[in-house]
Structures are given as C-alpha cells and as structure tokens.
Amino acid sequence: MESEFIKVVITDKRLVGPDHGILELKPVDGSELPTFSAGSHIGVRTPEGSMRQYSLANSPLERDRYLIAVRADRVGRGASRSMVEKTQAGDILKILPPENNFELVPANEYLFIAGGIGITPILSMCHKLAADGHQNFRVIYCTQSRENTVFADELETADFAANVILHHDGGDPAHLYDLWPHLEQPTAAHVYCCGPKMMMEDVRDMSGHWPEQQIHFEDFKPVEVSQADDREFTVLLKKSGARITVPKNQTILETLRERGYDLRSSCESGTCGACKTVLLDGDVEHRDLVLSDKERDRFIMICVSRAADEEITIDL
Ligand code: FES
Asked: Any residues with CB less than 8 A from the CB of 106 and at least 6 apart, and which?
C-alpha cells in the first residue's frame, strides 16, 4: 500500500477563521500530479496518523497542484484538527491518488447547493464548467458567517461570480436560506448538494418529487469511524497469543500499529477493503461499507469496526 502513496509538499496554507484551513499541495519532485475529474477527493495521511478524505477544490485542468479545505472537527479524534493546527507550508504529506464518487454528469443546467466545507467539490465543478464555457448553473452557498467561509474571495472574484448566492445565517435556524423556491418545481437541472447532514436531509426531503437521477449528494462522512459511546475492549491475536487493549478513542488498526504491527490499509474509513481481517471469535460492531452480510461473521475491517462485547479474536 505504501507504494500507492504520493508525497506532496504544502506550498501554501491559509487559515479561514479559527476552524478552517485551505492547503495547496504540490508534488515534492516537481512532477505532474495524477489527473482528476471535478468532484474527486484524495486520501491524506494526517499529521495525527489517520487517513482522511478531502475533496479537491481546484480546476481539474491544473496538473501541478491539489487544493483542499479542511474543517477542524472539535469533537473527533484530532485528525482534521491536526491538519488545520499542526501543518505549515513546507511540510510533507502522503496522499492517495484522486477518486470520484461525486461525478459531474453532462447536463444543460445545474443547481449546486453547498454548506460550509461542502463547497470544495462544487468549486471544482464550477471551474470545470466555466472552463468549458458553460454558464448555465447557480451556486447557493450557505455558511454561518463570512469569517469562516472558505473560498469566499475566490467565488466573489471568479468569472462565474454572478452565478453565486452566498448566504450567512449567523447560526440561527430562523435565518437558514430558503431552498424551497429553487426545488419546488422540478426543472431539467442536475442538483448537486454537499454540506452538513441537516442540509442534505432537507434537500433530500425537498427534492423527493424530482427525477432521482438528477439529484446527487456527496457525504463527507460515509462511515462514523468514532462514536461518542465507544469503549475499551481487547483483541486476542491468534498467531502470537498477544492480548491487546484497544482504548475507547483508537481503532484496532491504530492500536496495533502503535505496537509495531505492519498492517495493510488505505482509506481507513471502512470503504476500500484493504484492512480486511479474518475474525475467529467474538461479536463485532461492524461499521464498514465493504463486507456483505454473509461475510460479517467471518471478517472484520479493523480500521473502523470494534468489538461488540469485551473481546474478539482475530487471525493475526
Ligand atoms: S483501510 Fe479501507 S476499509 Fe479499512
């Protein structure tokens, strides 16, 4: 897996308010980066040691850099926080090549709805459309305040600035942007939505009468790697007989790595299958999106899943 990683250097870092950072990444050897399409994301090994996925915000025509935005999650395990607080220009990061689960399909018209950091893939889509001379799109971008709005300047000065509605609600539910006038009557537009869970649920509810294939969502957190009620448990490693305690705030993968085990992984978010491990005994709380129901008795994805009881035994 290590061979898949690309080494990049942070060539520019901007803080946006206390919780957001915009990072420009370039290859350390000055070569070109792998191509990407609008809506793509990359995996980044954060300074804290976990993998996280970040959408690319720049134009897919650019081959010399990737631009990402990160929000420091104050209640998570510190991975995104380490990206905002513990990085600086000149630091080297390891990334995985771009993948796209949020493809921009060809259409005559688009409606983009973004909340907070969710603007990132949508900005890349806007760059792509503008480069193609496609102007029939509208962007509705909602944040709490100007202070923590990533890419506000870029959007206001872009060629397509006239297509953008920037709305700040001050964190007051009474001042949320009213999306209903845009969704009440289905049109030929393809709707792309990326943002907080509540916004995506609202758009899902309001667009239920639209043709399904015209509505597209990007969810930044397909898997809840950590949950508030996580607790400590033990893992018995069959081959060595070692019994290892997994703390409540770490995954099995992180714990074993700290103990020096050389383990295969990639996404570290339960979506790629790289860390699939044979389960020999015990009940598991499966949190991945990889295993079929049939496989769940025999395997565990150790990057996200945990013991449901006190102990599990795995084939390591
Ligand atoms: S590393 Fe991808 S599923 Fe575990």
From this structure: none
The fold for domain 2-100 equals Elongation Factor Tu (Ef-tu); domain 3 (2.40.30)
Burial, 192: exposed, middle or buried (Cβ in 10 Å; 0-12, 13-18, 19+)? buried
266 lines ligand 1 (CB under 6 A): yes
Q: Is the CB of 189 under 6 A from ligand 1?
A: no
Q: Is residue 303 in contact with ligand 1, taking CB distance under 6 Å?
A: yes
For residue 251, the CA-to-ligand 1 centroid distance in Å is: 11
- Predicted TM-score (pTM) of the model is 0.78
Mutate which of 4, 256, 266 for ligand 1? The one with the most ligand atoms within 8 Å of its CB, which is 266
pLDDT in tens, 43-73: 898 888 777 889 999 999 999 999 999 998 7
Domain boundary assignment for the chain: 2-100, 110-218, 233-314
